[in-house]
Structure formats: C-alpha cells, structure tokens
Amino acid sequence: MAKQNYTLLPHCSKYAPNLIIVAACDGASSVGQIGNEVARILTKKYPELVRMCCLAAVAAGSPVHIKIFKSARAVLAINGCPLKCASNVLRKQGIEPTYEVTISELGVPKASTLDFDPEIAHQIALKISEDFISKFEKEGKG
After folding, report:
1. Is 79 helix (H, G, I), strand (E, B) or coil?
2. What's the rounded Cα separation, in Å, for the pair 89 and 77?
3. DSSP state, 105?
4. What does the alpha-carbon distance between residue 63 and residue 103 come to, in Å, rounded to a whole number?
5. How many whole angstroms separate alpha carbon 74 and alpha carbon 115?
6. CB atoms near residue 69 (< 10 Å)
7. CA torsion angle for 14, 19, 22, 23 (degrees, to 10)?
8. CB 16 within 8 A of CB 71
9. What is the bridge-based pairing of β-strands 74-79 and 20-24?
10. Among the listed residues 39, 94, 101, the one whose alpha carbon sits nearest the alpha carbon of residue 67
11. What does residue 78 show for φ and ψ, rounded to 5 degrees?
12. Predicted TM-score (pTM) of this structure
C-alpha cells in the first residue's frame, strides 16, 4: 500500500480559543452530505482559522469536545434540514452557535441520497466565508 501524504489539522483542543469551530450535519441525505462537505471546504480553505470538530462526540457528552466548543473563538453550526440537529446538539450541551446556516433554507431541496452537486457546496462555503468568516479574517489583520 502506498504511503499517503495527509495534511494534518491544528489540534482543536489546544488551539480552540483561536479557531472558529464547526459543527456540521452529516445526515443521510443530500443536504446532510452538503453540510459535511461545506465544513471540509472551510477547514481546508482557512487552516489557521477554521476547524471541524466532532459533533457526534458533543452529542455523546464528551467533556473534551464540549470544552473545545465552549472555548472556541466562535462556533459555526451547519445544519442540513429544518431539524437543525447541529444547532440543537450544541444547545443541549450549553453551547450557543455564533453563526448558523441551514442548507435546505438556502433553496437546496433535501433528497434521500448521499449524492450532491459539489458546486452547491462550494457556493454555500463562499456564502459563509463572505457573511461570517471574513469578519474574523479582518479582525486578525486589524
């Protein structure tokens, strides 16, 4: 097996106070998969500013993961559908999202498929970048 060359992410528990920590839907539908892909795009685009963190661990009550979100510079919740699971999981653990978006409310229909148009994910990532993340980039330069 060939050796893979992976990009390592900043350790979220160590750097959370400097990071926008992202909780994303990864549900078994098109909008759930778009939510996860948007979180991946943003994490890769802004490696020193944005970091995905495990929403399932927060839902399971992991003290380490709850602390990561609570100590974050900001919290971004990316929901897939009107159930808003990402936001609700965070709130049940006492974490208020700084910014939240719901894919299905952006005109993207929910479908029972794991397939999605990657261009839609890129458009939503761009919207979040412009509406939310850009404010933090300017902060760092000021």
Report:
1. strand
2. 10
3. G
4. 28
5. 30
6. 25
7. 40
8. yes
9. parallel
10. 94
11. -110, 110
12. 0.92
Burial 23-57 (b: 16+ CB within 10 A, else e): bbbbbebbbbbbbbbbbebbbeebeebbbbbebee
Token pair for residue 104?
């299905």
Pair of tokens at residue 135: 């404010």
As a whole number of angstroms, the distance between CA 43 and CA 51 comes to 5
DSSP 8-state code for residue 133: I
Neighbour order of strands in the sheet with 74-79 = 50-52, 20-24, 74-79, 99-102
Write out pLDDT tens, residues 55-112.
999 999 999 999 999 999 999 999 999 999 999 999 999 999 999 999 999 999 999 9
- Token pair for 45: 């685009």
Distance in angstroms (rounded) separating the CA atoms of residues 76 and 74:
7
Contact 112, 32 (CB under 8 A): no
